[in-house]
Write a structure and sequence with these properties.
There is one protein chain. By secondary structure, the chain is an all-beta fold. The chain has one domain: TolB, C-terminal domain (Neuraminidase), CATH 2.120.10. The protein has one helix and 24 strands. The protein has one helix at residues 268-273, and strands spanning 11-14, 21-27, 32-37, 42-47, 52-57, 62-67, 73-77, 80-84, 91-96, 104-111, 117-123, 131-136, 142-149, 152-157, 163-168, 173-180, 185-194, 201-207, 213-218, 222-226, 232-237, 244-250, 256-261, 280-283. The strands form six sheets. The chain has a four-stranded antiparallel sheet, with no helix packed on it. The longest helix has 6 residues, at 268-273.
Length: 297
């Protein structure tokens, strides 16, 4: 999978050195990019106007965040889904989980067009079969949508709201499913694209206004643009990075593609080879993204 020499390359905008950067979402009201360091247990708010970054300690692994229509953020932490007031740091639990053996944590999460929050839950070591996909409705009812997963990851919905895209990283594919907004149920899935082993693992994703998916490739050091028919039509390299973890569009015109990265399990040699691992990157690829759906509860 070779890159196009003329394609724009992502540039480092924040040398965050996160252990496992993930879950970026653009907040148009505050004009901030929210993102998380999963293993660091921190929610970050990056201000592109100043280059500053604010860190909010959660106290446990935090898989992802989402915007809340009534204000504030939703945090998918290891043992709970909670509402976070980013101004005060106050956290209010919305759903809690009993301790499990082996231990589990949240991974990626996104809101659907109806305002429900979809969350992946996985074993700490990513063991196959122990992961699940959950849905928290605005009335705070929690539903287990799918079990038997390994590393539930990127999610997105088509512009017309009739299709859901989902990645379980260890399956090495993007799955496309019909989505019924009235019932919030998904139909049987079909592989939209299967990734060869030498491309790395598909991780987080986002969608643009043309219906194309942008998929961060873990151990691939890039973000791929996937057409609605499953063709790979573009590639954005993240220089000096192997663990590209997720991406989203931001900025006032939603034309900036932000890319989170990681330095998970790095040795000293790995850190020397990838000094910007765990940093936040940005590129203007041409297409624009869609506003993030918000939790309606």
């Amino acid at each position: 999978m070779s890159g196009d020499a003329t394609a724009p390359r992502a540039e480092l905008v924040l040398d965050a050195r996160a252990t496992l950067g993930e879950g970026p979402v653009w907040d148009p009201d505050r004009r901030l990019l929210w993102w998380v360091d999963i293993l660091g247990g921190v929610v970050h708010g990056f201000d592109p106007a100043t280059g500053s970054d604010r860190a909010i300690e959660i106290g446990e692994a935090v898989g992802a965040i989402a915007l809340r229509a009534s204000g504030g953020l939703i945090v998918a932490a290891a043992g709970r889904i909670a509402a976070l007031d980013p101004e005060t740091g106050t956290i209010e639990d919305l759903a809690t989980f009993e301790p499990e053996t082996p231990a589990r944590r949240m991974n990626d999460a996104k809101c659907d067009p109806t305002g429900a929050l979809w969350v992946g839950r996985m074993a700490l070591d990513g063991a196959p079969g122990l992961g699940s996909l959950l849905r928290l409705d605005p009335d705070l009812r929690l539903t287990i949508v799918e079990t038997g997963l390994a590393v539930p990851n990127g999610m997105a919905w088509s512009r017309d709201g009739r299709r859901m895209y989902f990645i379980d990283s260890m399956r090495r594919q993007v799955t496309e499913q019909g989505f019924d907004a009235a019932t919030r149920m998904v139909g049987p899935g079909r592989p939209l694209l299967e990734f060869p082993e030498d491309w790395g693992l598909p991780d987080g994703l986002t969608i643009d206004t043309e219906g194309c998916l942008w998929v961060a490739m873990w151990d691939g050091g890039c973000v791929l643009r996937i057409a609605p028919d499953g063709r790979t039509i573009d590639r954005i390299d993240v220089p000096g990075i192997s663990q590209a973890s997720s991406c989203t569009f931001g900025g006032d015109d939603l034309g900036d593609l932000y890319i989170t990265t990681a330095r998970e399990s790095f040795t000293d040699d790995d850190a020397a080879r990838e000094p910007n691992g765990g940093g936040l990157f940005r590129v203007r690829p041409g297409p624009r993204g869609m506003s993030a759906d918000q939790f309606a509860g």
